[in-house]
Design goal:
- The structure holds 2 protein chains of 2 kinds.
- Chain A is an alpha+beta fold.
- Chain A is 45% helix and 21% strand.
- Chain B is α+β, with helices and mostly antiparallel strands.
- Chain B has 2 domains: 129 residues, no CATH class; 79 residues, Alpha-Beta Plaits (2-Layer Sandwich), CATH 3.30.70.
- Chain B has a 4-stranded antiparallel β-sheet with strand order 2-3-1-4, with helices on one face.
- The longest helix of chain B has 32 residues.
- The chains are: A alpha+beta, B alpha+beta.
- Chains A and B meet through strand 8, strand 17, helix 10, helix 12 and helix 13 of A and strand 2, strand 4, helix 4 and helix 6 of B.
Chain lengths: 507, 219
Amino acid sequence: MKKNKLKIITILLAIILIATISIFGIYKKMQNRMENIVKDYTYSMELKGARNVRLVASEGTKEIIKDAQGNIIESATEEEIEQNGYTKEEQKINEETVLTKENYQRVKEIIEKRLENLAVDEYSIAVDEQTGDILIKIPENNNTDTVVGNLNTAGVFKIVDSKTNEVLLDGNDIKLSNVLYSTDSLSNGQTGTYVYLNIEFTKSSAEKINQISKDYKTIEETNTQNTTEENSTQENTTTEENQQADQNQVAENTNTEANQTNVTSEQASTQENTQEEQEQKQVKLLIDDTTLMETSFDEEITTGKMQLSIGQVATDQETLEENVQRATNIATLLDSGNMPIVYEVEDNKYIISDITTETLKYVEIGFIILIILIFLILAIKYKALGILGGFSIIGFVSLLTLVIRYTNVVISIESIFAIILSIALNIIIVKTIIKNVEKSENVKKDIYIAYGKTLLKMIPICIFSIIACFINWVPINSFGMVMFWGFVLMTVYNFAITNTLIIEQKK
Amino acid sequence: MKEISQKTKILLLIIILVIILGAIIIVTKGFNFDMQYQESKKVELYIQKEFSVEDIKQITNEVFSNQEVIIQKVEIFEDMASIQTKEITEDQKEQLITKVNEKYGTEIKSEDTQIISIPHTKGRDIIRPYIMPLVIATVIILIYLVIPYRKIGIVKVLVQAILTIGLGQVLLFSIIAITGLPIGRYTTPLILVIYAISLLILVSSLEKQKSLEKKEEEK
């Protein structure tokens, strides 16, 4: 009898301790002030605030140079314009014909795709169908500025002849673009990671790129191969050494033909080279008229895929992350398609949520009052068993809030609802256990039967929670994570604590 | 038994009426949207010092009468106020600026402050991220349910499951339409909660049917 009471009292004291820590925290002296060392919650965009970006269709003009036949000249100096009789014209960046509802919708879809490719797991987009203005809200973090930089980029991709500027392929020929990796042992014994931008062309364009790779083939006999860096890219030559390298490929889309790598190489024709019988033809890869690289093709592209090495080989995490970010930015632009309208960022501000920390404190106080009410109801209805059940629920809630903090679960409105639901489900379990053992003779058996039956009923909700944990959308993900931890605690905590309390009391 | 089926009949009737009424309202009137998703107007006032949202709320209550207003602080220094409401006229903007200047001793000029249009966020864009996960979860749960409850009848289990889960969501949106509750930040959590509760009701019902089947088999 005394042992039972001691056990019960010990458990109750532990629950009170956890509840106190959960509500008030643990304070430690740090740098002459008291700081709460219990981890704080992580809040979602809805509760913390969001970067509000406003995009407007550009109303500016651009200068167009035309020849006598009306053909557009890419670029010309003032001298050339005079000599050749070219004319300059001011043209709107966005003609009236492109400012349509369909194009505004298309731009919205492209932005959504870019946000998904940039792993933005929470956003909202609204389009004004009259003016084409777009309001985007995204979470504020270290990547926000990079994301904003990619939102309004037109993403016009072209492969052109480097001499004549004839467009050989453009963005419409791209099926998908993603980032691949491979690791290799370097001559100094370290392991390096290469980051590649993979561009896969459409079926109809695969023949085109194949022909281009033949027409612009590297003339090996007469040119020495000097590898040079241009802009932010670097070439890799396909040699037998590289083919023996370990291939650890990580791709967003499945790519089963990754074994055949066609990599372009860059040739710098130097004045030291012997006279060439054939002039080396090169292509330029352009994004928004900025040269990504100027190159020729070492090998024929037969798979319809082109892989461009991005940055230097990475031997440390920082370099790898930089290279991956660069490749991801380019892949995002290519994969999402060309924007039919040129947009400008009119406004870009971080706006704090209207749900303030004070409001959240009131929510917390509301929870506490609710738990106390439940405790009183159980105590009145079931007397001693009810009091123990009430304490058990208090312990469950306190543990759940601590687990949420330490497992980095994001607190969103969805997860707050999930906390309420978890508490409600736990109350059902506790009430079922108490009801079943009130007048029971074989307490242990009846407790475990009641406990097991109630948990079995919750399996479908558990399945849903686990699936939700894997969804790349913060509100759903946070709901799933809270429910998942709620179930883990319901299973383990009730088995260890609630059942023990009830059994000891009945003894 | 008669009493139970009478109760069930009444409940079903109420549910059907709610759904029909909800459908009529959705087709004729559509849903209400919360201020943050509605087409609205906004002004941003650079106050240059820390301010209290309650103080700005008092000012907006005077200027905008009973209009719903969302007041938010802007940027890390929290020295700019974003005021969003259904409609802001030039007069109201000037009144707002005058009162803020009086309160905080600022010199905000009306001509430097624009009224910004906030476009409407479509309901389908709010709900879209939830559709596929719920569909995937439902399919997997249906596959799971068939296993322990196959004695009841696979088709019966599947139909009951789809009806229960679907009915939950339909009822939710019908009630939202009838009551005029705005579609806002609490709608999507409610979708998830109702989905979870539907699953619980479904399993409880299937368990009852399973135990009845078992009793009949034993007889």
